[in-house]
Amino acid sequence: MTEEENLETKETQEEVQEETKEESLEDYKDKYFRLLAEMENSRKRLQKEKQEMTRFAIENVIAEILLPIDTLENALGFTDQMSEDTRNWAKGFEMILSQFKEILSNHNITSFHSEGEQFDPHKHEAVEMEETDDYPEGTIIQEFLKGYKSGDRTVRAARVKVAKAPKQESEEETKEIKE
């Protein structure tokens, strides 16, 4: 090989090495930015999970105090049958009840009405079924205990009585009854 060819080969090798270094550098930059993005996504996901866990914990605690709130509300519904002294006491309890309701409101927890609506297993718990022609099948006839929700999430299902279509007796059963 001539000296000129040696120089050309050397320059070509240097160019190839330079290109390889640049490609390596680009690969490292790409990996670095991908890792940064992945870390940011992980941080956001963890923050969101933490917020959801906190929200669920609060909702679970509130769900436990809903029954005493309902009981207090039902008891105060009979104040018109009480003596004057007892009604004065009841006014104090009504103030306490309104404070509880304000706490629920502050946490975006609201009660929902169920009577007359179609039964939804995500929002309602059927505790009784009644055969009737007065209502379409699956309609809620009576609400025993009101339900509560937070946004779209049900905190406590409403306990309800649901309408059921009466059984149609077969012709054989009808004949047996008549005989």
Key terms:
elongated; 3 helices; Nucleotide Exchange Factor Grpe, Chain A, domain 2; 179 residues; 6 strands; 3-stranded antiparallel sheet; alpha+beta
Question: Can you describe this structure?
Answer:
By secondary structure, this protein is of the alpha+beta class. It has a domain at 111-167: Roll (Nucleotide Exchange Factor Grpe, Chain A, domain 2), CATH 2.30.22.10. It is built from three helices and six strands, in the order ααββββββα. The protein has helices at 3-76, 84-106, 171-178, and strands at 109-112, 124-131, 140-145, 147-150, 153-156, 158-164. The strands form two sheets. The chain has a three-stranded antiparallel beta sheet with strand order 1-4-5. Strands 2-6-3 form a three-stranded mixed beta sheet, with no helix packed on it. β4 and β5 form a beta hairpin. The longest helix is centred in the first third of the chain and has 74 residues, at 3-76. It starts with a helix and ends with a helix. The mean pLDDT is 87.
Blueprint (SSEs and pairs):
Elements: H1 3-76, H2 84-106, E1 109-112, E2 124-131, E3 140-145, E4 147-150, E5 153-156, E6 158-164, H3 171-178
Helix pairs in contact: 1-2
Residue fraction in strands: 15-25%
| Name of the CATH homologous superfamily of the domain at 111-167 | Head domain of nucleotide exchange factor GrpE
Shape: elongated
Largest sheet: 3 strands, antiparallel
Low-confidence runs (pLDDT<50, min 5 residues)?
none
The beta-strand count equals 6
Number of helices: 3
CATH architecture of the domain at 111-167: Roll
CATH topology grouping of the domain at 111-167:
Nucleotide Exchange Factor Grpe, Chain A, domain 2
Structural class: alpha+beta
Mean pLDDT rating: 87
CATH class of the domain at 111-167: Mainly Beta
- Cα gyration radius (Å): 35 Å
Q: Give the quaternary arrangement of the chains.
A: single chain
Helix content: 55-70%
N-to-C terminal Cα separation, in Å?
122 Å
Record the strand order, biggest sheet: 1-4-5
Order of helices and strands: HHEEEEEEH
